[in-house]
Amino acid sequence: MASMASARVAPAGFSYGRPPLSASEKPRRTVVVRAEAVNPGIRKTEDKVVDSVVITELNKPLTAYCRCWRSGTFPLCDGSHVKHNKATGDNVGPLLVKKQ
Predict the structure, then answer these.
(1) Tens of pLDDT along 6-62?
(2) Which residues form the Iron-binding zinc finger CDGSH type domain (predicted)?
(3) Is 38 exposed, middle or buried (0-12, 13-18, 19+ CB in 10 A)?
(4) Could you give the angle at the alpha carbon of 27 between the alpha carbons of 22 and 30, nearest 5°?
């Protein structure tokens, strides 16, 4: 006769883990961001790697796109690479798209 694993039952007034969420609570997620370089070897002799692309048909004269993946306005750059570069020793900067 095969034995079946029994379910773990908590004693009255005790629970294993977090109690169930109430109707008004939303589940929480934990996001862990590791501070590590996103540029492993491209032009590491430069203080900050910034590339520019010139295009004739654009609405704005200049748009900066994020390449550090830390921007709060991703895909647009918000300057978060400055803090990222200080924390990691990286040299990543934005991609600048310019109107010709």
Answers:
(1) 555 656 655 556 666 677 777 777 767 677 888 888 898 999 999 998 988 888 999
(2) 48-87
(3) middle
(4) 145
> How distant, in Å, are the alpha carbons of 19, 58, 64, 67, 97 from that of 85?
41, 30, 17, 12, 21
Amino acid at 61: P
Residues 54/100, Cβ–Cβ less than 8 Å? yes
Count of other CB atoms within 10 angstroms of residue 98: 14
Active site residues: 48
- Exposure string of 48-80, with b = 16+ CB inside 10 Å and e = fewer, is ebbeeeeeeeeeeeebbebbbebbeeeeebebb
Q: Which two tokens stand for residue 4?
A: 């079946």
Can you name the residues that pair with 11 across neighbouring β-strands?
Answer: none
